[in-house]
């Protein structure tokens, strides 16, 4: 784990939004951050103040060098292939962020490296408390659900260890797709044939918004209970990458609002800030 020597809060460059979110949660805007597909969500507007690093899969090392970061934080799959180039500029942390546990550990470690260990612990504690309060409010209500992605003929469903689906289950939405058949954390989604989908027949379906998938024109799809009951919801990019302190709160609140609109209002930046316990 790198040690940073500075008299002020370290200058953070974020390859993806994760490091930027941790920096914001600790009270500081990062100096540079990767571009976000479609633009930053409203709850991350402050990241617009940071310098742009270009797409996270093709980081501009010139822009990164110019930003003069003290620490680089990013996704492992983006950092590791070019680790030496990153570390020549500043110490680099790369994380594989798939599960809730991955998120908690990465937030705690990054906060510690930034000299804010207690604050990182507090961020994780407040997140857990927020989930517990939401779960208590839901009570005995139970649903079955799926989180789908794919623009092709056959949908893909995320397994229960994937963070967003784990959050669904914490909020009494049982994953109709169940756990992964693999021992490793990847792959974290798998194809679900329409014939199998009709057997699963979940109460509610969340679907990543993108180009219109071909399978929604199928008669089988039209016969799903969630479709008939207007309980299919298009969701944002944040649902696919909910690991940051802000994103995981936003996604949790969005799940709750869509699943139990009579109990929970739509998420807002103000609600997320409050739940960070700052």
Write out key terms for the chains shown.
278 residues; alpha/beta; 2 domains; 12 helices; Rossmann fold
Model description:
- By secondary structure, the chain is an alpha/beta fold.
- The protein folds into two domains: 121 residues, Nitrogenase molybdenum iron protein domain (Rossmann fold, 3-Layer(aba) Sandwich), CATH 3.40.50; 102 residues, Nitrogenase molybdenum iron protein domain (Rossmann fold).
- Helix content is 38%, strand content 15%.
- It is built from twelve helices and eleven strands.
- Helix 5 packs antiparallel against helix 6 and helix 11 packs across helix 12.
- It is globular.
- It starts with 11 loop residues before the first strand and ends with a helix.
Corresponding CATH architecture of the largest domain: 3-Layer(aba) Sandwich
What pattern of helices and strands is seen along the backbone?
A: EHEEHEHHEHHEEHEEHEHHEHH
Overall domain count = 2
Q: What structural class do helix, strand and pairing data support?
A: alpha/beta
CATH class of the largest domain: Alpha Beta
Number of DSSP-assigned strands: 11
CATH homologous superfamily designation of the largest domain: Nitrogenase molybdenum iron protein domain
What distance separates the N and C termini? 26 Å
**Mean pLDDT over the residues:** 95
Mind telling me the C-alpha Rg? 19 Å
Inertia-based shape: globular
């Amino acid at each position: 784990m790198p040690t940073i020597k500075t008299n002020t809060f370290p200058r953070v460059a974020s390859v993806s939004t994760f490091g930027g979110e941790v920096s914001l949660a600790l009270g500081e805007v990062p100096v540079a951050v990767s571009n976000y597909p479609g633009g930053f969500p409203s709850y991350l507007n402050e990241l617009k103040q940071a310098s742009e690093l270009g797409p996270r899969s093709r980081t501009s090392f010139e822009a990164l060098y110019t930003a003069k970061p003290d620490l680089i934080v990013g996704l492992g799959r983006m950092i590791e292939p070019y680790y030496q180039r990153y570390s020549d500029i500043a110490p680099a942390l790369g994380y594989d962020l798939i599960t809730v546990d991955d998120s908690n550990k990465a937030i705690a470690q990054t906060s510690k490296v930034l000299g804010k260990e207690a604050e990182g612990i507090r961020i994780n504690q407040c997140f857990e408390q927020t989930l517990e309060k939401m779960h208590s409010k839901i009570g005995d209500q139970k649903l079955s659900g799926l989180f789908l992605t794919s623009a092709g003929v056959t949908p893909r469903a995320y397994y229960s260890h994937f963070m967003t689906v784990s959050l669904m289950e914490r909020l009494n939405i049982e994953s109709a797709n169940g756990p992964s058949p693999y021992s490793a954390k990847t792959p974290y989604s798998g194809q679900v044939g329409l014939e199998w989908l009709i057997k699963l027949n979940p109460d509610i379906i969340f679907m990543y918004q993108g180009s219109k998938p071909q399978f929604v024109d199928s008669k089988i799809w039209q016969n799903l209970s969630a479709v008939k009951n207007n309980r299919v919801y298009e969701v944002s990019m944040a649902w696919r990458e909910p690991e940051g302190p802000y994103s995981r709160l936003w996604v949790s609140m969005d799940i709750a609002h869509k699943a139990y609109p009579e109990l929970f209002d739509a998420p807002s930046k103000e609600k997320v800030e409050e739940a960070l316990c700052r």
